[in-house]
Amino acid sequence: MTDKKMLTERAYAAVEAHKAVYYREGDYVKADFWDYAEIFEIIEDLYEVTGDKALFAQFEEMYQYVLKRYTEDWHKNPYNDDIMWLVIALTRAYLYTGEKKYLDTAVRNFRTAYDRAVSGELGGGLFWRIENQCKNTCVNCPGAIAAAFLAKATSDDTYYDQMFVCLDWAVRMMFEPDTGKIYDCINLDGSINRWSSTYNQGTFIGACMMYYEKTGDAKYLDYAGKAAEYVKDVMYHDGIMNNEEPGNDLPGFKGILARYIRRYADLTEKEEYRDWLRRNADSAWENRNAQDIMWTQLGVKTEDNREYDVFSMSAAMSVVVNSADTVIKL
Fold first, then answer.
1. Residue 241 contacts by C-beta under 8 Å, 6 or more apart in sequence?
2. For residues 238 and 240, what is the distance between their CA atoms, to the nearest angstrom?
3. Nearest alpha-carbon partner for 222 in 205, 198, 238
4. Eight-state DSSP code of residue 222
5. Residues 60-108: pLDDT tens digits?
6. 10 Å Cβ neighbour count for 151?
7. How many whole angstroms separate alpha carbon 113 and alpha carbon 127?
């Protein structure tokens, strides 16, 4: 499916189907803190591929629910990466809508997470959780992205200094420049978890692109390209993303990758990445169930009589949405 109108209609249909099954007046069934952040971002992605500002009515309804459930101060959440995800979502919302309350909440909570997480141990960068036991790609790359969006939103370039703290750590400590593979974390004893995921590959791509766009330093675009090549050609051999099915968080990861693959294709005009994303979206859509929702294994038929987790089902929704053409760019 390559017709632009059909891609857009399919993106709307994917979001509406997910919403029909899981959404209840601001709440998503059994969703938790960072689940909301990802669904916020998918709504924003749908805005980027449609230009439809009416989507922010649901965003606002969700925002009010999140404030009611978690308040405006997220310091009690021990996961610094969770906070960074909502910071990204709310800062993007401000950039699209001009609603300053989104930015105010984002700025306050970025400071909370960054200030308690940053240190010179283990090569610099941010700790994952408040116990300070390991430093992970899953907080440093989203932290870099959050800082870049905040710089745009506030016109305060000092955020790029904080972005560099996070991104430089990821490049030096987690990145294989010859292959494009991104490692997961380093522990206090110095041991490194060399496992790679679509989440970490995607956020590294996004952070490198945003730093390149600000500085013009071409090596960061090269880093993004290497990471994109690794995920498409090594992890998936230019085929269908048909894994990451076990666990609570893993099934939702490829939705995050899809967001940054679309942006990478937009920035570089490398159509092979757009084509690959669309092949995956086609497979997911062909394997949807009777309710039009889709499981994270994009090449496996989604069952009709199985209870699927809301976050797990967000990944394919994001792939379908991000397979459409961008019409609104930050």
1. 198, 254, 280, 298, 319
2. 7
3. 205
4. H
5. 999 999 999 999 999 999 999 999 999 999 999 999 999 999 999 999 9
6. 20
7. 9
